[in-house]
Amino acid sequence: MIEFTDYMADPTIEKGVISIGLIIAVGLIKSVLRSVILKRSRKKKSGYRSKVNTMRNTLNISLVFILIVLWASEIQSFAFSIAAFMFAIVFATKEYLQCYLGYFYYVSARPFRIGDWIQINEGVGEVIAADWTKITLLEVDQHTNSYTGKHLFIPNHQILLKPVRNLNFLRRYTLSSFTITCEPTIDVFPIVETLKADALDYCREFIDVAERYKGVIEKRLDVEFIPVEPHFSVNTNQFAKICISVDLFCPIEQSISLRQKITQQFFKLWHQEVSHTPSLERRRVESVSNE
Q1: Number of neighbours of residue 144 by Cβ within 10 angstroms
Q2: Confidence of residue 3 (pLDDT cuts 50, 70, 90)
Q3: This prediction's pTM
Q4: Can you tell me the distance from the alpha carbon of 241 to that of 196, in angstroms, rounded to the nearest whole number?
Q5: Does residue 255 contact residue 174 with C-beta atoms inside 8 Å?
Q6: What are the E-state strand segments in 133-274?
Q7: Which runs of consecutive H residues, i.e. helices, occur in 162-206?
Q8: Is it the case that residue 281 has pLDDT exceeding 80?
Q9: Which of 150, 251, 256, 285 is most buried, most CB within 10 Å of its CB?
Q10: What is residue 21's DSSP assignment?
């Protein structure tokens, strides 16, 4: 017992035991708090990721700060002993240092929050976690605005080097654009006018909410946004086909079904018009007969 007491009297051993105890205690506290947050979030049916991320980072920062204070004298002695190698160490760990700087920039500037949709370089997704070294995104397909099931891990230094686009306003409503292509056998402009009215009927149930959402976006961006009514334009491509471009501002979950409805209605009207329109060969025969 006396030998154990003498052994523990060594300040370094004592600090090491305290440090291990602190690390274990913080790990247990994080586990307990995470369980509590999950239970409360499920009862209130609210998001938990932001709270869990804030709790985890707060405890980690507090633990590091306490350990630095506890080992201050040893760290100072160690720093003096490696002063000659400091440049090499900084050069070797510059990527990590940039990640730490990127995290402090994220904490101070708050260009986005947990749960926001963002784009960094080519990566697009929902922010589900952010720590000292990386940002974790749940990848989102830009074309369908749906989750792909993949995770993206973006180093924090990318925040300093690459533009960060906050796409949070696209979480509920999306700019859905698609093109319908057909043969130039008939005049499609009357069909497009009819299709506009049909598309407006399809969008009538959410157009009031879309108008308010559009107002929020315009207020945040301080720019005029697209109209909420469906927009149609007729063009031709390099193959001399007619292309009807359709732009919709609609809820994400309805974008695919609206595309299908509008496309189905167009071809229904198009086939009806074609069936009542004589073919080119028939028109030539009728023209010859009349002469």
Answers
A1: 13
A2: low
A3: 0.53
A4: 21
A5: yes
A6: 134-141, 146-155, 164-166, 173-182, 231-236, 242-251
A7: 189-203
A8: no
A9: 251
A10: H
